[in-house]
């Protein structure tokens, strides 16, 4: 299809109309030119296609679809292949339902546990989020269905999300909030990107030329279309030249008229409209020309896939030996979530599930007993329900208490008030533990919670929101039919107040300042060496693994080289399992403020009992770099770096060092306000300053004495931070000293 030629046949009015949706879910079509209208729809963890006619608000019932585990759950799989497979399954479902673009994945960073949409997001770590997102996109788009990478950018709260401005410094933006988008765009090439509701440093994302054109297209090479989040457009006339192509939902009749008027008045170029229409038509025809109308999928097979994904992702946080449960044990399942699980989040990604399987139903063969324990419609304890649950638990050999957060507490559109579970659940749990010391907790919610009762229970399985097959997946893990292998993609703090964004989260009015900067999640907790409930990357198994033979293919390198890292992992237990090997990098001598370690590699390896495998990683410049705002680029400082292999960010097993030489020379400008220490860091400067200092008697009298109690070492430390102008002062303002320093400055600046 010659799209450019097609656009020449469109009127100005048709072009302007094409830049907004036809309705809530459809892109505009144009029958006279043979341009069809195609459908876009939520969501990242299951298809949410409205049946029949779409309504204005997108609230009508959607078709039956498979509800897969949410982003917060599958991220704990640390499994690129699993994410790619899940994308392929969703791509088949989109083809079967004639959906051109699936609105996802969502890769916003988990700045705070309170974000109401954390269940949809992958991680607090940008490297992990980017790797998993790229795999997911590749899977969906392998089926000739597009994705919409969202929400671009710095959309890490739901509170006042349509007007709030995220105030983020450039380095933090580049190191934390943009890399997952960058990786996804460069590696997986999504058909579309969805701009976020919020403002970024005062400017709406939907009209930010810097964000949508300079960074997204010019720097990263994005070639697709940018669409708005639903209702995210503030000024449509500013948006089109900025690079915001498609306004959703439609029809945007008012904004269409504004675009036409702006072109006619010379306030906007018609070529900007042409570019927007071209990018929209590109994904429309990419789908149409690769449409597979005969695609069918097996609902039962996909339901089972959701079960496998959940079992691969759930995290065993604590186990003192009580798990796996024995088939012959008499076990009580306690809590309403055991029979009616919470398996997905609220809001735009809510799926009309094919079928939902709870844990009580899935454990029938084990003869479990059941007591409701609490009502999900209230947080108030029900003494009668608790009493019955305690009796049921006491009569069993072990109790599994199912707790979590309700849809009313955690959803798109608003943020959580705290990290607590409902009072009715906490009281139930404490009463059950008193009656039954062999108690295991299963948690079903989208993000981290506080666990003041953690020392009172023997085991904790974090199910997150595990999709419609959550029940069988939980039972598989509890009884050892599957071996837990998920690891936390976020840190669980002991309490909300420990979170680095606590003092600033939500912000003041329509301004929220990201004052914690790059210290998000484990980057903060590990830097402060602060106790946490469970660290990033933590997760237990029913077997044990040993690490050995960490090897680097070189001990020194330039930042333009790559480093190959290998390590051996062995299953020394008696069960088959999967271990997630995590690689972190630390800059040992950085002059920039940096985290003590950052995740730069991971791999999930399957091992039979006694089996050993070698895992390999390749590290490039970005693994050692930080974003230097003075040069607006990624920069590696020459020096020593430590490569760490760990089970989590707090459980480092092996370390090795490599010397990295920077090939990027940063031009420094010196003046009379440059310090002696900064000058001495330059080899030429050190030589010249040394000669000058020897000629200055006042600076040589540094031996400790009554007149100089500081001594030589202390004097040198003080002198390190003295500006050059201070030498003139100590020299009595001697003109020859000033002239000599000026020569030094000129010589250094001439390098």
UniProtKB/TrEMBL annotation:
<dbReference type="GO" id="GO:0008422">
    <property type="term" value="F:beta-glucosidase activity"/>
</dbReference>
<dbReference type="InterPro" id="IPR013783">
    <property type="entry name" value="Ig-like_fold"/>
</dbReference>
<keyword id="KW-0378">Hydrolase</keyword>
<dbReference type="InterPro" id="IPR001764">
    <property type="entry name" value="Glyco_hydro_3_N"/>
</dbReference>
<dbReference type="InterPro" id="IPR026891">
    <property type="entry name" value="Fn3-like"/>
</dbReference>
<feature type="domain" description="Fibronectin type III-like">
    <location>
        <begin position="579"/>
        <end position="649"/>
    </location>
</feature>
<dbReference type="InterPro" id="IPR036881">
    <property type="entry name" value="Glyco_hydro_3_C_sf"/>
</dbReference>
<comment type="similarity">
    <text>Belongs to the glycosyl hydrolase 3 family.</text>
</comment>
<dbReference type="InterPro" id="IPR017853">
    <property type="entry name" value="GH"/>
</dbReference>
<dbReference type="InterPro" id="IPR002772">
    <property type="entry name" value="Glyco_hydro_3_C"/>
</dbReference>
<dbReference type="Pfam" id="PF01915">
    <property type="entry name" value="Glyco_hydro_3_C"/>
</dbReference>
<protein>
    <submittedName>
        <fullName>Glycoside hydrolase family 3 C-terminal domain-containing protein</fullName>
    </submittedName>
</protein>
<dbReference type="InterPro" id="IPR036962">
    <property type="entry name" value="Glyco_hydro_3_N_sf"/>
</dbReference>
<dbReference type="Pfam" id="PF00933">
    <property type="entry name" value="Glyco_hydro_3"/>
</dbReference>
<dbReference type="InterPro" id="IPR050288">
    <property type="entry name" value="Cellulose_deg_GH3"/>
</dbReference>
<dbReference type="GO" id="GO:0005975">
    <property type="term" value="P:carbohydrate metabolic process"/>
</dbReference>
<dbReference type="Pfam" id="PF14310">
    <property type="entry name" value="Fn3-like"/>
</dbReference>
């Amino acid at each position: 299809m010659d799209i450019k030629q097609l656009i020449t046949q469109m009127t100005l009015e048709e072009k302007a109309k094409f830049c907004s949706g036809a309705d809530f879910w459809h892109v505009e079509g144009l029958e006279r030119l043979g341009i069809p209208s195609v459908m876009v729809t939520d969501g990242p963890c299951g298809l949410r296609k409205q049946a029949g006619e779409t309504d204005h608000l997108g609230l009508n019932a959607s078709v039956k679809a498979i509800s897969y585990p949410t982003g917060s759950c599958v991220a704990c799989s640390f499994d690129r292949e699993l994410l790619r497979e899940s994308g392929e399954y969703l791509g088949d479902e989109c083809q079967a339902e004639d959906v051109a673009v699936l609105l996802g994945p969502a890769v916003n960073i988990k700045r705070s546990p309170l974000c109401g949409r954390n269940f949809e997001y992958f991680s607090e770590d940008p490297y992990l989020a980017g790797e998993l997102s790229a795999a997911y996109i590749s899977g969906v788009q392998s089926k000739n269905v597009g994705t919409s990478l969202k929400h671009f950018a710095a959309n890490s709260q739901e509170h006042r999300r349509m007007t709030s401005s995220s105030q983020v410094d450039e380095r933090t933006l580049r190191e934390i909030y943009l890399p997952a988008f960058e990786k996804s765009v460069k590696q997986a090439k999504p058909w579309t990107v969805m701009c976020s509701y919020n403002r970024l440093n005062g400017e709406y994302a939907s009209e930010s030329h810097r964000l949508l054109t300079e960074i997204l297209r010019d720097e990263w090479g994005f070639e697709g279309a940018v669409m708005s989040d639903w209702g995210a457009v503030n000024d449509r006339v500013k948006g089109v030249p900025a690079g915001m192509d498609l306004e959703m939902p439609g029809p945007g009749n008012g904004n269409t008229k504004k675009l036409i008027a702006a072109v006619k008045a010379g306030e906007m170029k018609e070529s900007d409209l042409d570019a927007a229409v071209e990018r929209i038509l590109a994904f429309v025809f990419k789908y149409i020309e690769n449409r597979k109308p005969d695609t069918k999928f097996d609902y039962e097979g996909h339901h089972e896939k959701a079960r496998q994904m959940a079992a691969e992702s759930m995290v065993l946080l604590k186990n003192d030996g009580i798990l796996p449960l024995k088939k012959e044990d008499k076990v009580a399942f306690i809590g309403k979530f055991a029979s009616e699980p919470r398996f997905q989040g609220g809001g735009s990604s809510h799926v009309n599930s094919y079928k939902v399987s709870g844990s009580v139903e899935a454990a029938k063969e084990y003869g479990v007993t059941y007591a409701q324990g609490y009502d999900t419609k209230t947080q108030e304890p029900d003494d009668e329900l608790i009493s019955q649950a305690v009796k049921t638990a006491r009569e069993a050999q072990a109790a599994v208490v199912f707790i979590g957060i309700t849809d009313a507490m955690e959803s798109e559109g608003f943020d959580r008030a705290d990290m607590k579970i409902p009072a009715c659940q906490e009281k139930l749990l404490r009463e059950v533990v008193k009656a039954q010391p062999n108690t295991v907790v299963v948690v079903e919610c989208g993000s981290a919670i506080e666990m003041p009762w953690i020392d009172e229970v023997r085991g904790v399985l974090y199910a997150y929101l595990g999709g419609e097959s959550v029940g069988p997946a939980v039972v598989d893990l509890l009884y050892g039919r599957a071996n837990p292998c998920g690891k936390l993609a976020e840190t669980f703090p002991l309490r909300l107040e420990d979170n680095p964004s606590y003092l600033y989260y939500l912000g003041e009015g329509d301004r929220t300042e990201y004052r914690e900067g790059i210290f998000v999640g484990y980057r903060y907790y590990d830097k402060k060496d602060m106790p946490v409930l469970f660290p990033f990357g933590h997760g237990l198994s029913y077997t044990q693994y040993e690490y050995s033979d960490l090897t680097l293919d070189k001990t020194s390198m330039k930042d333009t080289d790559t480093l190959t890292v290998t390590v051996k992992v062995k299953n020394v237990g008696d069960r088959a399992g999967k271990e997630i090997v995590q690689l972190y990098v630390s800059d040992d001598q950085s002059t920039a403020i940096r985290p003590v370690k950052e995740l730069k590699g991971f791999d999930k390896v399957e091992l039979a009992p006694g089996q050993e495998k070698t895992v390999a990683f390749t590290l490039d410049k970005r693994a050692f770099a930080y974003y230097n705002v003075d040069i607006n680029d990624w920069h590696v400082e020459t020096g020593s770096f430590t490569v760490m292999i760990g089970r989590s960010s707090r459980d480092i097993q092996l370390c090795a060092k490599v010397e990295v030489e920077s090939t990027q020379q940063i031009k420094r400008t010196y003046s009379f306000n440059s310090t002696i220490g900064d000058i001495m860091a330059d080899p030429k400067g050190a030589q010249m300053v040394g000669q000058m200092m020897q000629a200055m008697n006042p600076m040589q009298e540094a031996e400790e004495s009554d007149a100089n109690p500081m001594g030589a070492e202390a004097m040198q430390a003080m002198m390190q931070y003295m500006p050059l102008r201070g030498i003139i002062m100590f020299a009595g303002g001697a003109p020859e000293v000033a002239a000599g320093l000026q020569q030094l400055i000129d010589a250094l600046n001439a390098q």
